[in-house]
Amino acid sequence: MRIVVLVKQVPDTADVRRLDVNNGLLDRDAGEPIVDEINERALEVALRYKDEHKAAEVVVLSMGPENAIKSIRKALSMGADSGVHVVDESLAGADALLTSLAISRALEQTRFDLVIAGNESTDGNGGIVPAMLSERLGVPLLGFLANVEITEAQVSGERQGDDGTVNVHAGLPAIMTVTERFDYARFPNFKGIMTAKRKPVETVTLAELGLDAAEVSSLDRTEVISTAERPARAAGTKIEDDGNAAATLVEFLATNRLV
Amino acid sequence: MAHILVLAEISRHGHVADSARGLLALASRLGDPIAVVATREPLADDLIARLGSLGATQVYQAQSEQADTALVAPQVEALAAAVATLNPAAVLLSHSFDGREAAARLAVRTGSGVLVDAIDVRTEDGRIIASGSVYGGNYLVDSTTTGMPIITVRPGAIDESAPAASAQVISETVTVDAAKAGMIDSYNDAPEVSVRPELLGAKKVVSGGRGFGSKENFAMVEELADALGAAVGASRAAVDAGYSPQTTQVGQTGVSVSPDLYIALGISGAIQHRAGMQTAKTIVAINKDADAPIFDVADFGIVGDVFTIVPQLIETIKSRSA
Lengths: 259, 322
Ligand SMILES: Cc1cc2nc3c(=O)[nH]c(=O)nc-3n(C[C@H](O)[C@H](O)[C@H](O)COP(=O)(O)OP(=O)(O)OC[C@H]3O[C@@H](n4cnc5c(N)ncnc54)[C@H](O)[C@@H]3O)c2cc1C
Ligand SMILES: Nc1ncnc2c1ncn2[C@@H]1O[C@H](COP(=O)(O)O)[C@@H](O)[C@H]1O
Hints:
heterodimer, A: Rossmann fold, nine-stranded mixed beta sheet, two-stranded antiparallel ribbon, B: alpha/beta, Rossmann fold, 8 helices, binds adenosine monophosphate
């Protein structure tokens, strides 16, 4: 079984993240670049399968700037076997349509039985790249899973829905995405950190994926027209409870017609 | 007038999803709203009437044998067929689980850009523009696409309704390649929710955090919510601890709400929690730690113990309305 985990490097959600109001692009200096937490959970699913099935191979694939190698190494130190880094200048600021085109080509070259991705990334909240991959590659997608069972032939689990959950399955090869219902990931141990440095990481450019600039620029694109920063909220009244705080709060709510 | 397609999701119990109202309202602003539905049996008259009352001038019903068994693929086929026939200026879907997967797959079919999680749309100089609230509402970003836009709209973001229409039905048959789709085996219905308002789009929200310490204690959050006629929310720590269902998580990776009133109880106010609630009109926080970051965004903060104050609040509010 060959499992490819899609890992996106994103600015840490614990830091203040900024957009450049002139071009709407991410200010890369605001927010430490890290592996998106949901992708660590995705990797954990693959690693647990590998714990049980020693012959399984876990590949991490990331498309991102040069420094995304840091996230690939982190995943390798947690236990993945090898990495693929899709990196190319013309992918800077790529939207989902282009991202999915590049990743789908890389997945075709890397080959897979199962692809595990996050349900959505914290820097875009799109949750659309995995479904685009499923359409491009012609393989089924089980998205927004709360749990999963992986066998040699198929993947099945409970998918989140708007009014309850749905039990779903798909034959392999397939793509699945995990939600926060999956466990937090393991931490890298010392041995993992040492061996990660020697594990193979393949770097691929657009040309190596068989994509040329003309094909890339012929795609429809999303464009940011304007970016406005919302004024920061100011703190209001703060009182210590002296026994009357509840009554004071209800008065405040009543004055503001909120009760 | 330009055709604007809306994916109307139909629940497995045969109800038109709540998202249809807002989507059709936006569509009627941009052009002529057409509801697209994937269905196994022809739609019942009352469903067609319902879609008309929400503003659909036409209902494009794509019948598929697999409509109840294949995951999202029937909706994609329905939309792709409708796009090919009707040549719309835009396609609108809910930013729901099914909606965004359908949007993504359709985008690959039509080669279109997707504008995600819009809270508003408009036409300007002949272009369709979507507004999004990004990074926890810190930025308002307007974007567009070079071709026909596919837009997913944040659930609960749209208050308005379109003028009612009487919908004409267009019927088509579509086929789904089952080998390329996930398959549905069965459903686990959510426990029937009470009369409590839905979190998405709620005017008032009362949220509880890890400060409650147990599921039993968390019931106090629900009691205050009921006294105020509010929806119940929770922090991720409260969800992780099992105090409240996952669907109630507010924040970065939960839902984003913009109610008139947001009350945070025993919630520290981590940046990822604030990302989902800081656009509320009025924020109230109760926390025993005077330095909790939630107070930085609160219009009214009480430094105190939720176990003392919340029961008093419930009582005072109940006696007012009695
Ligand atoms: C990628 C990512 C995404 C995330 N997404 C979300 C998200 O969507 N939503 C979210 O909420 N979090 C999210 N988080 C988690 C977030 O960082 C915090 O861990 C979480 O919000 C903390 O929840 P809490 O405030 O309930 O718990 P804590 O931080 O433990 O705070 C509990 C608070 O209760 C107070 N308290 C305790 N007892 C009492 C009492 N008796 N009376 C009054 N006050 C009391 C304490 O002073 C404390 O401030 C995310 C984190 C990451 C990394
Ligand atoms: N640039 C990328 N490199 C690797 N994986 C990605 C990339 N973009 C998206 N993904 C995967 O797709 C998931 C959903 O991303 P998104 O559609 O951007 O919200 C992420 O959690 C990743 O698993």
